[in-house]
């Protein structure tokens, strides 16, 4: 199929900058940084944007490694935003492919920005760190950074938000799970475990009872609910009765309402085991991402562009669900979060094979395919008022 002049400009821009985009994605992969520590990645991405005429504001929405970048036309028109993620996982690096996500969104924004003089409108990049979670400085906010972008007003003038996530198969946007976090802290009384165990209060005992209590509770959970956690501190020495123990749990469900309805049950278990063991419990609460509001009209555009790019899109029913703070964006503006194949069909997130795929030739070619698909989708929204109106009408129906 022949390209129109605007599409040809996108193709030429992407081709001219492809080596640079891949180089940045590789550099971010080789320098993995956990949530709210992505100073190198943020600098790499903002340098790309600044060099292409974007006005970049750093340290936004309460996060030092977050940024807001915008390039405007002199002509009125829609605002298309691209969501950039660039944090790595603790201990395993870029095993969710955020080195590709952030660079793909920046590449798409730069590519689309080259036609703004003809189309009008604006292109925005939201640099959102800590999608996988992370503490922003001493006592700072944890995770859910995109929610803070919404609260700070960075989405108020955005018409549509776009991103693409690497995966084992190319698929359209799928529903995701809302989640909340609970942090349990048990405090007991230390004592020598051999000579005077009766003088102590074992915080770890309370925590083990909590773990078992939640495990038993799972058989009465509604379909689709996920409750899972880890012990983050179980004591310091086996010959000392632990005076402190802690755990971090997720509650996931299809909606925020279901998540919040289950939280009191976990709290009740914690308070019960504290009473039973004589320990004291403190519970910290963190609001996680919302569920994702799907937009069929927007996904229809993406399906056409994926197909035009030669991608085979898997349209089979969704089997598994994850959580993402892009869900919060989807409640503010029409949002797409499709998936793009970078490796074998059975690729699993947060594993070593996924990390290897994120640094593979196939992965970097997917970066360019994703940037092309996102930029061309953005172009259609900038130039086709009917398409944009359909997307907005679908968003209104979903809400």
- The rounded distance between the terminal residues' Cα atoms is 37 Å
Number of strands: 12
Estimated helix fraction: 40-55%
Strand order of the largest sheet: 1-2-4-3-5-11
Identify the overall geometry.
Answer: elongated
* Mean model confidence by pLDDT: 95
What radius of gyration results from the CA coordinates? Answer: 23 Å
- Biggest β-sheet strands, sense, barrel: 6 strands, mixed
Structural category:
alpha/beta
Q: Please work out how many helical segments DSSP would assign.
A: 12
Spell out the helices and strands N to C: HHEEEHHEHEEEHEEHEHHEEHHH
Strand content: 15-25%
Query: What are the low-pLDDT stretches, counting only 5+ consecutive residues below 50?
Result: none
Overview of the molecule:
The protein is an alpha/beta fold and about 400 residues long. It has twelve helices and twelve strands. It has helices at about 5-30, 40-50, 100-115, 115-120, 145-150, 205-215, 255-275, 295-310, 325-330, 350-355, 360-385, 385-399; strands at about 55-60, 65-70, 80-85, 120-125, 160, 165, 180-185, 225-235, 245-255, 280-285, 335, 340. The strands form three sheets. The protein has a six-stranded mixed β-sheet. It has a four-stranded antiparallel β-sheet with strand order 8-9-7-10, covered by helices on one side. Helix 1 (about 5-30) runs antiparallel to helix 2 and helix 6 crosses helix 7. The radius of gyration is 23 Å and the shape is elongated. The mean pLDDT is about 95.
